[in-house]
Amino acid sequence: MVATERFRPSVTVAAVIANAGRYLLVEEETPEGLMLNNPAGHLEQAESPIEAVVREALEETARHFVPDAFLGVYLARFVRPARLEDVTYVRLAFSGQVGEAIAGRALDEGIVRTLWMTPEEIAACAERHRSPLVLQCVQDHAAGRRLPLEAVFSHVSLRDPQRKG
């Protein structure tokens, strides 16, 4: 079979943030309705995954995020019913800590609120998860999965692309 178009998955980052047995999630408006997600978003051009997860966590939670470990690379695929769009996500998940919410800082557009939930509460509302990766990342974190941040390498060419030819 000859592919007519190059496969282009959506690359995202996610912050898995735990405190006292609870995980910080965001409730957000999506084409499928109000859903729960880890603070997450798309990797932007010229941005390292660590820079992206720090930015996304700040935008979605109004809290400074300090990554301390890499959880892993996660993939999921679904057909978005609202647009009949077939989407594959490649998620780079990081764990870390946040401070208190920054007074007066608005949450990103579409984020309704943040909330702290136990793994059991998160599992009990799986039908409201933006993706099956929400629960998987929480379960992996709770099980103690941690990889060094150095496992994610960003070459200097991200900011200064090399010309070939």
Automatic annotation (TrEMBL):
Pfam families assigned: NUDIX
UniProt keyword Hydrolase present: yes
Molecular function GO labels: hydrolase activity
InterPro entries: NUDIX_hydrolase-like_dom_sf, NUDIX_hydrolase_dom
Record key words, sorted: Hydrolase
Domain Nudix hydrolase: 8-139
SUPFAM superfamilies: Nudix
The protein, known as: NUDIX hydrolase
Species assigned in the record: Roseateles puraquae
